[in-house]
Every structure is written in C-alpha cells, then in structure tokens.
Protein 1
Amino acid sequence: MVDIIKNSIGACINLCRPYERPALSKGFLLPEAPARLPSFHTCVGANEERLTPKWYKEHGIELVLGSRVKSVDVRRKTLLTGSGETISYKVLIIATGARALKLEEFGVKGSDSENVCYLRDLADANRLVNLMESCSGGNAIVIGGGYIGMECAASLVINRMSVTMVFPEEHCMARLFTPKIASFYEEFYKSKGVKFVKGTILSSFDIDSNGKVTAVNLRDGSSLPADTVVVGIGIRPNTSLFEGQLTLEKGGIKVNGKMQSSNSSVYAVGDVATFPVKVFGESRRLEHVDSARKSARHAVGAIMEGNQAGEFDYLPFFYSRVFTLSWQFYGDNAGDVVHFGDFSGGTFGAYWVRNGHLVGSFLEGGTKEEYEAIAKATRLKPAVEDLAELERQGLGFAV
Ligand code: NAD
C-alpha cells in the first residue's frame, strides 16, 4: 500500500481495501466460526476504530482502489499509476509491506500448481480454505517451520488433515525459540498427529497431468505423498519502486527514528522499513503487525509535529496462538538464556540476559497481567547479576 497525503487530504492507493492480516493464519482458517470478512477491518485487533469504507469517507481519506503504482519519482514527488495517472504528493508514506518468498527462488518449480498455497493475502487464505475443504482427510505438507508453518499446521490439523512439516533447521521457529522451547511445541504438535521432517528441504514436486502436486521430494532422497502443500519460507520486502532513489538497508528502506527515509518527504512503516531499535543497538526490519501499527502511528505523529517529534522507541513484540496454546515475546533473544516454569504443559518461559541486563522475555500460557509484567520488565532492562537466582525467581522476577 502506498499512502499519500496531498494538500492535507489523505489518499490511500491500494489494490484492495486495507484489512488486518494476522487473522489469515489463525481464526480465518478455522472450520467452525471462522474470523472472516467483513468482521476484520484494519484496527480490529488493536481495539481501535474499525476502518470501514464509511470511516475513510468520514475522515476525508480518498481510497483509490484497484490501482497499482507503477513508478515513483521522489525528486519530483510524483507517482505514476497503472492507468497512466500522475499523482503528486507533499508527503509519501511507503507501506508496501513484503511478499511471500517463492520456491522458484530456490530452484523448485511448481508454485503455481492448484494445490500449492502460500499465505500472504486474502485470496491466498480463501484458496487454502477451499483446498482444506476439498482435501479433508488427505495429506498436507507444510514447507517451513516459522510463523506461517506453525500456525497453518495447527489449522490443517483442526481441519482434519494429516500434516507433515518440513524445514531445514534442527527445530521449529529457529529465529526465536530456544531448543527447549521448540521441543515443547513440537511434542505438543506430535500429540496432535503432526510429523516433523527436520534438517532438509524440498528438491522438487511430482506433478500429475492435471497440474496437481502428488508428492514432495526432499533433498535427503525421501518423498512424501501430498494432497495439499502450504509454503511459508519467509518474505521479501517490496522495495523495487524505490531502489536507486532511497537508501536501503538490510533489505528494507532505511529510516530514522521519525520513520523518515533518505528523502525527507518520504516515510516508510511496517515490514518494509529498517528502523533504529534501541534494544538491538542497531537498525533492523521487524516483521510484525504490532511494529507495523506502531511505526505507522509514529510516522504520522512525526509528519504532523515536524521537528518537535520524538524518536520511535519500540520494544519488539511477537505473539502467536495455536491450538489451545498462546505465547508472547518481548525484546531481543540474544545473550544468555534462562528458562523457568512448567514445561510439561503449564505456564513457562525464558529470559535473555546480555551484558548483565535483561533484554528479552518469552512466556507461554500467561495471563494478561503476566504478559504486561514481562513486557514492562523487558522495557526497564533491569540488571541481572545472578542467572541461577533469575531462574529460581522465574516469572516472579517480572510480576
Ligand atoms: P518465517 O521467516 O517465520 O519462517 C520461514 C521458515 O521457512 C523457516 O523455518 C525457514 O527455515 C524455512 N525455510 C526457508 N527456506 C526453506 C526451504 N527452501 N525449504 C523449507 N523451509 C525453508 O516466515 P513465514 O513463516 O513464511 O512467515 C512470513 C511472514 O509472516 C513473517 O514475516 C512472519 O513474521 C509473518 N507472520 C507472523 C505471524 C505472527 O506473528 N504470529 C503469523 C503468521 C505470519
């Protein structure tokens, strides 16, 4: 999405009306009482005003839908749309997000087969729902052990499919989980019938004469029969409109603490923005809805307040809900790790300590107050001298 603010009237240029994406890999996929449109407008998850078409109208925001921006000239402050219209702006907010990484980038053909699904937008989610309905009881292969892989595997099981997850790492959610945390979730998934094939990746698909994938062939030489394949192997930020015009860093558009890019009239927010993150001590791109919402809010504040605006001080936050489980993470998962709590199915978690200070916390099965407590403790970065004592105190250290 590209937002423009022209002559103090806002315009939002997009292919379709903005909506919340987090539901797509969670409630949207449930066979019973699914969370689907029209009940998930933008901001539903943040318990803020629901951004219905009426809302945009009432707030003087023109929604320009079905329109793709073909090129941008940041020096002239103009956008060129697919229909040949030139739009000029005073301030531009880039919220183009990211796209799902395709298997073709790893030399595997078959992404366009009718039973291979990615999950990035509403059309993908609708396709997956249809596939689950038509293949109920069949074999689903999930490629990737990250957020999409874990959340979709849970939904596929709930939709009565037989699920196998394939990923190259030694354990799931390798970007965030410790082996001990991952082991808990993997055992839970196994108890629901999910099989794990770890330490390998797929090398090819067997595709029948109707263009349907019938098996997934792995690099280790094995082959898995497949009725449905779900691929969640990461994302790539959509920066191409701005390459050569704005400074890029770590795959995203580099911005300062006001979310302002190397061109002072252009701001970037969400998955596409690489911004300074205090707890990391460096700039990073964060892929999460909470960061997207808060960075957008901060950019708008900075545009309105000009030089008075403060720096974005964001504490990284991630969460997930699968089956009856639910976890939250705050801060950075770097340094020494200390686990605590009941890993046999109760409330448990972990702290990360770097340079003598708490920098990150993870909690599964917490209450609202407990999640708030670990968030607050992580933000305060208290000194931790004795890791054994931290382990002994466990959640009590934060609450
Ligand atoms: P991810 O980065 O979380 O996980 C990618 C996974 O794919 C990793 O396990 C990786 O090792 C694996 N992988 C990479 N190449 C592979 C290959 N060739 N074969 C097999 N496995 C391979 O990305 P994702 O799960 O695709 O999620 C996409 C985006 O959606 C992310 O930005 C994520 O943050 C977001 N998302 C977040 C949530 C949440 O926060 N709860 C939920 C869904 C999606």
Protein 2
Amino acid sequence: MKLVRLIANLGYGSRREVQAMFREGRITDAAGEVLYADDVVAHECVRVDGEPLDPAPGLVVMLNKPLGATCSTRDAGRIVYDLLPSRWRARDPMLSTVGRLDRDTSGLLLLTDNGALLHRIISPRQHVPKVYQAELAEDLRGDEAALFASGTLMLDSETTPLAPAMLEVLGPRCARLTVTEGRYHQVRRMFAATGNRVERLHRSRVGALDLGDLEPGAWRVLDDGEVARVFAEGSSVA
Ligand code: URA
C-alpha cells in the first residue's frame, strides 16, 4: 500500500492533509531520510515527525473501562473513545468495541479493528467466558446458582433460554458470575429475574485474559499471545 493511504488510514489526516505532511518533509524513514507519498515502505520503518507510526491494522486494545463512560461512538457524555488517542477515532478500518459494557459497568473492555476476531469473541458458539463481579441490592436467595446453571432461564422478551452460567457466591450480596453470551444487559436482567438488582457491576475477565494491573481508565495494546488467552482452553464455564 502506498504510504499516503497507509498514513491517512491510520487517522493522521485526510489524503490531502497527509500529502501536505509529505511536502513538509515530516514523513521519513528511521534514518531521517524523507519519504514520498507513493513510496511503499514497511510500517515499522516509517516515522512521522520522528515518531514511529501508530499501531498497524489488526490492533487489539484492552481498556479498563471506568464507570460513566459509554461504548457508543456518539454520545453527549463521556465515551470510551475519549480515553484513547484522539487520532484512533479516524482509523480505517475503524476500532470497534468487542460487545458493550453499560455506562454503569466497569472493567475489561476489548476494542479491535479486526472484524473477524471481534465476531469470534462475541459469538456464543465460541463459548468465551466473561466473568463479572456483581454487588447486589438484596441478599441472594440461595437458588440463583442452580437457576443460572440450568440453561432454562428465559429473560423477558426473549425467545431462547440463556446458556448455562456459573454463579459463585462471594458474600450475602456479592457474587461472581461467568456467562458465555452477551445479551443486552444480560447480567442485570439475570439478577432481576431472581427479584434482585445489581448495584455495581465489574467485568474482570474475558476468556483467560484479565486486567492485570491496568488502572480504571487505562488501556494498552495486546500482543498475539494475550489475544490468544481470550480463547484459551480451560477458561470455559464448567
Ligand atoms: N451485563 C450487563 O447487564 N451489563 C453489562 O455491562 C454487561 C453484562
């Protein structure tokens, strides 16, 4: 791919703006030699104002989503894209969230520009477990684990029952829930079906990938090994 297109697709500007950057000599190789718009040069060899290019397409980002941010691309309030470099919003292919977390849910959110990977992670057929910690308004009744594991729980206005999910009781009003689907407001609706209400929800794990020491609001680019952990054997709902 010609450099002008490669750089414009990374969100550095329109083709016209990137052409101007070439004319100004801002785009060079690692040795500082000026490059030209029609050159075809390996991504890692290009510098803009002396800085390496943003990550190449195929990007996978893990964000520790803070409470209050939405997964929408357009919202009056704070959106998760505000937490990432602003240039990334103009990337083509675009960076999409892998499923969604509600505004009032915190924790592990993946974003990628790899559509096939995105669909593989969210597909219920892949059985990628997502692990949530829920703080509840009411004491657990005691029968929730059996109900969630049954594979028969039907949420309001749905036509198929939920796949089995695993509940671990952490306290009278605190539980860890592992689900393999991503239905709309799924965790909140599951507890609502038991007469309870989720007061705080945090996702700690997707597959065998966890947040590690990533602070709320922080993000990092994942390497191939970390992406593979999403599909790691043995991370499923038993
Ligand atoms: N289930 C929910 O109810 N909300 C989320 O954000 C994720 C799963």
